[in-house]
Design goal:
Blueprint (H helix, E strand, L loop, with lengths): L3 E12 L2 E7 L2 E3 L3 E5 L6 H8 L7 E6 L2 E2 L5 H6 L2 E3 H4 L8 H9 L13 H5 L2 H10 L15 H13 L5 E5 L7 H14 L4 E5 L3 H7 L2 E6 L2 E6 L1 H4 L3 H8 L2
Parallel strand pairs: 4-9, 4-10, 7-8, 8-9
Antiparallel strand pairs: 1-2, 1-3, 1-5, 5-6, 10-11
Helix pairs in contact: 4-6, 4-7, 7-8
Bound molecules: adenosine-5'-diphosphate (ADP).
The site of adenosine-5'-diphosphate (ADP) has 11 residues, from β2 and α1.
């Protein structure tokens, strides 16, 4: 088994001549939580879109779990277990929390789903859905309409629906953005728990969260990798301090 579950080489994305991601070499070690950080406009979202194949790179290669995925389609990489949280987790506000997870479960990885399956069929997914809700601390919200959940709980539901696809590499886009302290603590504990037995790549602005969760980080600025390594090491790098951490 390869040490790195994800490796990019020379990953580059240009938008009409503007280089948003430039020659990026990302290496994500299997079984770790890896942080992707950098100021606004650094290219983090573009990287996520390249990795999940929502964007095609201008140049460069992406290897995931031992195979090249550079030219694959989003559904193909999702089927291989590379899953981004929001990509599959459109929360249906009028369905209950439990129903949302059931719908996610009855989808194949990267497949389509059918709203109109009979309730009897959907109920088969109940046990697993309830397990997932317990995992993310939403048991007491199971029967609530998803649209009525407080924001922090909605993000937890998003994680539950992502877990329904049993990702191998889970991409989380700012899981604590806009949260209260309490919610942040809960999501941190949740990410740590869901990372057991899988790899997580997360974009996160809250550096305390990054420091507490991430085994390693990659710092992007202006589309380029400025530094990578353990947080303690990278956060002492003078270039990183100047570019990003020096607040
Ligand atoms: P981050 O997520 O780190 O804030 P982004 O990946 O969203 O950064 O953006 C990186 C740069 O690429 C920004 O300057 C942004 O304006 C530009 N960019 C992103 N998407 C597009 C696009 N579709 N067309 C043109 N420019 C884009």
């Amino acid at each position: 088994m390869q040490d790195y579950i994800l490796e990019t080489e020379g990953l580059t994305k240009e938008f009409r001549g503007f280089v948003a991601v430039s020659d990026v070499a990302l290496r994500i070690r299997r079984g770790t939580i890896h942080g992707l950080i950098g100021p606004n406009g650094a290219g983090k979202t573009t990287c996520f879109n390249l990795l999940t194949k929502f964007l095609q790179p201008t140049r460069g290669t992406i290897r995931y779990d031992g195979r090249e995925i550079t030219r694959m389609k989003p559904a193909e990489v999702a089927r291989l277990g590379l899953v981004r949280s929001f990509q599959i987790s459109a929360v249906f506000p009028h369905l209950t929390v439990l129903e949302n997870v059931r719908v996610a479960l009855q989808r194949e990885r990267g497949g389509s789903f059918d709203f109109w399956r009979s309730d009897a069929v959907l109920r088969r997914y109940d046990d697993r859905a309830r397990e997932l809700l317990a995992d993310v601390g939403l048991t007491s919200y199971a029967e609530a309409a998803a649209g009525t959940l407080p924001y922090g709980r909605k993000r937890a539901l998003e994680i539950a629906t992502t877990l329904a696809l049993d990702p191998t590499l889970m991409l989380l886009d700012e899981p604590t953005a806009g949260m209260t302290h309490e919610d942040v603590d809960r999501i941190v504990a949740l990410v740590r728990r869901v990372a057991q037995g899988r790899t997580v790549l997360m974009v996160e602005h809250n550096l305390k969260v990054v420091e507490g969760l991430c085994d390693a980080i990659t710092v992007l600025t202006r589309g380029r990798v400025l530094a990578e390594g353990p947080y303690a090491e990278v956060s002492r790098n003078p270039e990183v301090v100047a570019a990003y951490l020096g607040t």
